[in-house]
Amino acid sequence: MVSAMLNGAESLCLTRGIVQYSYGFSGSDLYGKNLSKLGLVSCCNLTNFPRIRSKKMNTLVPKCSLSTPRPASQPRFIQHKKEAFWFYRFLSIVYDHVINPGHWTEDMREDALEPAELNSRKLTVVDVGGGTGFTTLGIVKKVDAKNVTILDQSPHQLAKAREKEELKDCKIIEGDAEDLPFPTDYADRYISAGSIEYWPDPQRGIKEAYRVLKLGGKACLIGPVYPTFWLSRFFADVWMLFPKEEEYIDWFQKAGFKDVQLKRIGPKWYRGVRRHGLIMGCSVTGVKRASGDSPLQLGPKTEDVEKPVHPLVFLYRFILGALAGTYYVLLPIYMWLKDQIVPKGQPI
Ligand SMILES: C[S@@+](CC[C@H](N)C(=O)[O-])C[C@H]1O[C@@H](n2cnc3c(N)ncnc32)[C@H](O)[C@@H]1O
Question: Residue 76: which pLDDT band, with cuts at 50, 70 and 90?
Answer without folding.
Answer: confident
